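To whoever picks this up:

The parser on our side crashed when reading a file containing two proteins. I've narrowed it down to the boundary between the first structure block and the second sequence. Both blocks are reproduced below exactly, byte for byte. First block:
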Amino acid sequence: MSDIDNFTPELTADGSFTFFSQEFGEAFHSHYGARQESFLKFVEPTQLALKAKYQPMLRLLDVCYGLGYNTAAALQTIWSVNPNCYIEVVGLEINTAVPQRAIAHHLFQNWNYEYTNILSYLAYEQKVQTSRLQARLLIGDARTTVQQVYGLGFQADAIFLDPFSPPQCPQLWTIEFIQQLTLCLQNDGILATYSCAAAVRTALLTAGLQIGSTPPVGRRSPGTVAAYNLNGEVGSWGGRELGRTITPSPHHPITPSFPPPLSQSEKEHLLTRAAIPYRDPQLTDSAEVILRRRQQEQQASSLEPTSHWRKRWQSNNFGF
């Protein structure tokens, strides 16, 4: 059976479709709604509609491009606000069969979507150039291709971090990979992900970002949004100075309270063994090695067991 044969559309609750990955044992999107997840977990938290009002150009880095839904939602949102906004997109994807099958199965038909031809070219040719768009797909291990992105000097206004879950794909949730991502983030750019795992949040903090929660979409657990300190100060984590000095962009106003603060339960979650991050020092280790390394570090840790935190906050249990 070929890769192409492996991907069959599965209906989600909002009427849109997703695929199931046999390799990772997970669907590409939440069964509560694939389309709504792209808008509510990625596009809205990165404030692209607001930025499109003030910026003539926006750059997007779509990590784990997959079916192309996050990029599709971003294009629709930006051009509905500012049809003249010039957009640069870089998507990172390991398997070209995924976006190609999304096009072959006409998965954008029920979106009432007008940019399917763009997504089709991107899926099959890995690049698109129009008067208001430059897009490319970099195919391969994202740990390698993200270094190409940085080498190109690409600085994203929005980063969509959308791999399979940390237990299934720890390679793309490590401290080292997320540090590479932050090198590709504009000073006033925003990173969004569906995950609220404490290990992922620790990695974002270690990379010098501030973090906040995004509203739950279809389930109890929130997502995470991250950005550099927007007050022009160097961020800190664990007493160590990290990050870089930030000058807010003159193109659009910055909301002083962004990112929104974590709840007390979320803050305490970051003090448990669940917060021990995934590590991949050379960005080459297998999932098994990364998982085993973290498990050993957790076993040797003096941090509070996560089960104790869960009992204290049972009413706010995020399902870890």
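<<boundary where parser fails>>
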Amino acid sequence: MENQHIIVRVATPDDIHYSKTITDEMEASAKARGTGIAKRSPSYVELKMQEGKAVIAVTDNGDWVGFCYIEAWGHGKFVANSGLIVNPAFRGHGVAKAIKKKIFELSREKYPESKIFGLTTGLAVMKINSELGYEPVTYSELTDDEEFWKGCRSCINFDILTSKQRKNCLCTAMLYDPAEKLKEAEERAMADAKAKMEAPVNQLSVTPEGQIHQEKKRRGFKGNIKLYDRWLRFKRFVLLNSKKEGGATGTRKKFFLF
């Protein structure tokens, strides 16, 4: 891969000629690891490219480098970034991390209110997920969509999954919950605002001897804190409901703040 520039972008129908190479490498990689779920056909990968629900990495010379795609489950309540694969010749150079970041951004763009989850046995993928904001969760917090769990049948650990009543397996479940992240952001903003409001304010005064003296005084903004809290709650309501109420029809509601 010497002196080759790698491009990570959203896949398009023009990329379907890579589909057989991608699925062959998915299968080979799963066999090498001894694990792997949801074996996919070239036609399935091509569909994801046509839908704009995949990310591909290629060199500026047109060599295939890596791939990942989005799947929606439970009527869009959950999405998974699946099928992450990197060409062996390009591994160890941060390609997987770049693809994961791009597919995460694409998932947030296409499914802003959906929970994003993944199952993995790879420590490297767990680390990347953690940096993106995923958190380890129990299997009960994932989708109950039967079609998703059927995809585990091609994994050699499927018997373990079924013996555990689908409550546990060798894979680690990780989840990104946008509503929870928004709540955490609000709480941090409130804490920061409160800290700033309660921080001592330096005031300068001059003593009879002509010396400058600093006095520290605490300011109270209880009323402002309540107003700030109302604003954050209102903003959260707008963010979580704008797509639901206006996105389907293409209309947007206007809000005026006084």
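After patching the parser it read the second block fine. Confidence is low (pLDDT under 50) at residues 218-223, 248-258. DSSP finds eight helices and nine strands in the chain.
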